[in-house]
Amino acid sequence: MENVGLEMFLAVSAVLFVCGVVCMATKRNAIGVLMGVELVLNGANLNLVAFSRYGSLGLDGQVMSLFVIVLAAAEAAAALAIVLAFYNNHMTVDVDQATDLQG
Amino acid sequence: MMSPEFYSEVGNLLMWLLTAAWLLPLLGFVIEIFGGYWSDRKSKTPAYLAVGCIGTGFLLSLVALLTWVDAADLNLWHFGDTESAAVAHHEADAAEAGHEDDHSHSHDHADHSNAHGEHGDAHHDGGHHGGHESHANDPFKTAFAGTFYRLGKYGSLDITLDWYIDGLTVAMFAMVTLIATCIHIFAIGYMSDELTERYEDHFVHTEDGGHFHRVGRFYRFFAYLSLFCFAMLGLVLAGNIFQVFIFWELVGVCSYLLIGFYVERKTASTAANKAFIMNRVGDFGFLIGLMILWTWFGVFQFAETNPETVGSTGLFQMVRTADGELETQGEGREKVVVLQAQQGIHKDGGNPHPTIPYFLLVAAGLGIFGGCIGKSAQFPLQTWLPDAMEGPTPVSALVHSATMVAAGVYLVGRFYPMFTPEVLLVIAYTGCITLFVGATIAVVATDIKKVLAYSTISQLGYMMLALGVGGWLAGLFHLITHAFFKSLMFLCSGSVIHGCHHEQEMTKMGGLAKKMPITCWTMFVGVVAISGLAIPFLGIPKLGAIAFSGYHSKDAIVAAGMTFSSLNPIHSLLFFVPLITAGITAFYMFRMWFMTFFGKPKDQHVYDHAHESPRVMTAPLLILAFFAMFCAIGGENGPLAQLILTTEPVHVAEGAMEAGHIGLNLPGHHQIHEFHASAGAVALLVAFGGTILAYLFYGLGIVDTGAMQKQFGGVHEFLREKWMFDELYEWMWVRPTLVVATWAAAFDRCVLDRFLGFLAGMVVAISSWDRRFDEAVVDRLVNAVGEATSSVGRSLRYVQTGRLRQYVMFIAVSVVMLFFVLFAYLPR
Amino acid sequence: MSTVLFVIYALAASGGALAVVLSQNVVRMAFWLVISLSSVAGLFFLLGADFVGATQLLIYVGGTVVLLIFGVMLTSSGPYGTIKSQPAEVVQAGIIGMAFLALVASTVLSVNWEANEVRLAHANDHAEHGHVHEVSEPESEQGYNPEESGNTTRSLGTALLGVRFDKDLSLESEDGSNHGHTHGNHEVSAGYLLPFEIVSVHLLVVLVGAAYLARAKRRVDVENA
Strand, coil or helix: what is B447? Predict the structure, then answer.
């Protein structure tokens, strides 16, 4: 484990994060967008735990990541409910159709 | 005479009683003036409230009077030994006062005896040195004084609200409240036609030929009456000359309001203005007097009598020594009056006492008396009073007896110690002229109220004359007796006017005795009283002659005048004029009575509709008639005179020889007493003469008055025109004022208006430029900012595509860009 | 051994994430997401955060992804329903994503973490204790001991309650005297009890809200049908 440094974990989390962002930016399916969000959160989580291992954060990082996981679950539940409501109204999950707030 | 404990106890009791009596009418005024608007106009509640206030005030005053008499330990019934009883009494008091002063002012007195020792007594012109060992708070031994509230202190001058209670104060309080109560009750009946929502004023004609209509002002009338009483009582209770001035002006304001009560009548509003402006002329003199007093004395208080305030002195104590003399130094223009005080404003080099130049003391006295001239309608400011008849009759009664005109006489009496012989002579001559002018005009007046008005002027002249010739007691005695019978006669005339439906011309009356007997015979009481009639040679022992109040007081005045002219033969006019006028007075009063109540009815319409007044109006007449008969019972040895006498300034009793610059001889009590009997006889004779003449002229009608008028056409016309005073003033003051005003108006139009127009034009021009600047620059700037914001918003609108994915892209791109910018431009 | 495992897990996580991005089918995306998230859980285990890793597996893989799949089932209009993005968009997003990745990676690699850590600890120490004493060694400021890794459950539980084995208590018990941490200066951390409660209430509220949002229209639809 000694030859695996903090940078490696951060690199992986960066990949996850960027993938999440790209996923959010490209997927027209609302559920796809949600998955992107999950990826972004996971990247952040990985960051936290890595710092908790290598940095002076101690258990704080892990506790934070736990909270993030919980909040992600909550977010997923609420977002899915919103998606379902949207689906019930528009019979689609295409986020491009959701342009009601266009300026 | 009294211990300090007793003094403060009695003084506080009196103060509370009289203060309550003084403030009650104010309370009534406040309630009436504010409550009147929301209460019913047909309600008599305001009247009952006013009567209740002033009536309670009377009861309190009565209690105060009794308290005072008890405290002063007076024996008011000096009938046993009539031989110089008054003088004896006075001397006894003086002796007691001296004793008391030794006791309570020993410290003070030590300083003074030192001072006198150094300077000797050579400078005194009076020659009375006896009382000098005891300097005193006390020519005014039975007075109580104190302070309610200090308004402010300016340097050495305290402006305070003080009270000053002596025999004159309590007598005035009782008199004012009693008469005011009667007048209030009378007014309930007299003003009852104001109890309506729609009052028709027959004297005001509208343009379409009808009469003016307005709402009734019953409550307002009573509110004003209450305020009037409050002002007058405050004036009497006032403990310093400045406070007197305050209430003096308040009395003026109230008279203004009441004379102008029928404000829609042009004559009434003009009369109100005239009364007020005439009074201002006099008040100007008052103000000058005040300024002199302020500058040279530094105090306004009349006198300090409280044993606890040893060392501080009032005006009277500063001017007069303990035995009432003026202490003077120097001769001619250098003459100064030494003030009896340690602390003072103006001190000479070697003199421990402050001084005031003699001529300034004279000027101060003349100034104060100027105020009294205006207020008491003396020559030459008497013309406002007849015009004041425009007010409702109860107001006339109040103004003419107890309140307004009495204020002037009261002040002269109160301020007597400050008057030098020169001032007294001016007062005497002013009164002399006034009484003659008033009486002569009254002879030819035909308006019943005008007759009474001129008789008031004349009687006020009597009072002033009496005060001027040294008859201090006579003047104030007459003030009170006159208040009773004059208010009685005014109310009687009010009853007549009310009964005849506002007909005031005596030429349309006549024979009313059958129609209104109570009014007729109460009026008779008043007429007899003012004429000074008595049953000669038939006196009840100890009570003196059988006579009504007027006889006693007028007798005293004539006696004083007679004594004065015998002592100063050059001023014998001051005896003969009032003597003759006594006859004229009897003549015109009986003329009025006969014309009104006897003879054949001259106007059948008026006669048919005449009726006796309701009981609410006749009851006050009966009360006042009683007092007009008996208030002066016993004459100068009677209780009323003795009560007033306790207040008499010390120096009056002995009189003075060769006093002042002009060497005037002022009579003392002894001298007056010598002339008393003969003066009374002469005055009675003259009065009877006048009465008989009137009876012949108007009672029996054996002389054709019309022919008389033609025979003396010029004189008659002159008198009808009131000695041409109004015309004289018109030419002397009004016309020049109008001319100057015209010039001023022309100046205004030609110079000031043009200048102001030019300024205004400048301002307009500047503002039009300013407007252009506003429109061109400011507005455009603001609009540009608004347009810019709006267009930015409009362009940003396109960024809000509503597409989520684009937003994510934006975020990512902007993060990248931000980093690039940071790395590119920020220093490492 | 751990290096090998790290490589495997890292590749799986990155590859899964890339596959999520690239695949068009929602169900496949979900599958790749499961792969990626599980690998991240493996990375957590490698980092010694066994509880967090287990939670990751339980909640994400076992809960959230199932939830997403249910969402797919409830919303897909047809079998294998795909909504295609335009290629230009994909290219755009790819470029930006690459740029972003390059940015982040370069940032990560350019920072000297060790030195930063020392500096940070130094600053913390100054802030807490002023100039009283110097920091002895940077190692002592590091997180919990690797030898004890794999047993964080109890520590986490007590940490939630405010008792910190890794910081306060451990230092004192081992070499507190050396460090100069006296009882008086010592401060027990605040703990995460309040955030924990807030989060639990938050979760409850979200679930209620989600149930409400998801139910309301359906009932209307049923009634309409």
Answer: strand
CB atoms within 10 A of CB A92: 18
Query: Residue B677: what pLDDT?
Result: 76
Total count of residues recorded for chain B? 828
Residue B812 sits at the chain C interface (C-beta within 8 Å)? yes
B234 pLDDT higher than 80: yes
B808 reaches A (C-beta below 8 A)? yes
- Show residues of chain C in contact with B805, CB under 8 Å: 89
Taking the CA atoms of chain A, what radius of gyration do you get in angstroms? Answer: 17
Beta strands B211-214; B534-540: pairing state: unpaired
Among residues B650, B533, B622, the alpha carbon closest in space to that of B585 is found at B533
From the CB of residue B148, how many other CB atoms can be counted at a distance below 10 Å?
Answer: 14
- C100–B815 C-beta distance less than 8 A: yes
Which chains border B (3 or more CB–CB pairs < 8 Å)? A, C
How confident is the model at residue B741, as a pLDDT?
Answer: 92
Q: pLDDT at residue B639 above 90?
A: no
Residue B560: alpha-carbon gap to chain centroid: 25
Question: For chain B, which residues make up each domain, given as ranges?
Answer: 4-79+162-296+359-720, 726-797, 802-828
Please state the φ and ψ torsions of residue B392, each to the nearest 5 degrees. Answer: -60, 150
| pLDDT tens figures, B117-161 | 333 333 333 333 333 333 344 444 567 888 888 887 877 677 888
Query: What is the C-alpha to C-alpha distance for residues B425 and B205, in angstroms, rounded to an integer?
Result: 49
Neighbour count for residue B572 (Cβ, 10 Å): 14
CATH topology of domain C2-84: Four Helix Bundle (Hemerythrin (Met), subunit A) (1.20.120)
Identity of the amino acid at B200: E
CA distance to B673, B677, C190, per residue, from B87 (Å): 10, 17, 106
Residues paired with residue B664 on neighbouring β-strands, in sequence order:
B659
State how far the Cα of C186 lies from the Cα of B257, in Å rounded to an integer: 89
State residue B387's pLDDT score. 84
* Per-domain boundaries in chain A: 28-91
Residue B287 burial (C-beta neighbours within 10 Å; 0-12, 13-18, 19+): middle
- The Cα-based distances of B567 to B229, B555, B575, B677 in angstroms read 41, 18, 11, 17
Phi, psi torsion values for B560, nearest 5 degrees: -60, -45
- Which residues partner with B535 through β-bridges? B546
CA dist B259 and B274 (Å) reads: 10
Longest dimension (CA), chain A: 55
State both tokens at B513: 């005795």
- Alpha-carbon distance of C146 to C132, in angstroms, equals 30
**Residue B779: what are its φ and ψ, rounded to 5°?**
-60, -45
b/e code B350-369 from CB counts within 10 Å (16+ = b): ebebbbbbbeebbbbbbbbb
Instruction: List C residues 30-59 in contact with A (Cβ-Cβ < 8 A).
Output: 30, 33, 36-37, 40, 43-44, 46-49, 51-52, 55-56, 59
pLDDT-based confidence at residue C125 (cuts at 50, 70, 90): low
In chain B, which residue's Cα lies nearest the Cα of A18?
A: B812
Interface test with C, best of A15, A37, A68, A97 (most C CBs within 10 A): A15
Instruction: Note whether A95 contacts B798, CB cutoff 8 Å.
Output: no
Q: Which of B247, B253, B258 is nearest to B277 (CA)?
A: B253
- Which pLDDT does position C166 carry in this prediction? 62
Query: Phi and psi for C152 in degrees, rounded to 5?
Result: -95, -5
Residue B381, pLDDT above cutoff 50: yes
CA-to-CA separations, A87 to A24, A97, C34, C84, in angstroms, rounded: 18, 11, 24, 18
Mark B370-388 as b/e (b = at least 16 C-beta within 10 Å).
bbbbbbbbbbebbbbbbbb
- The whole-number average pLDDT for the span A63-78 is 88
Question: What 3-state class would DSSP assign to B825?
Answer: helix
Interface test with C, best of B801, B803, B804, B813 (most C CBs within 10 A): B813
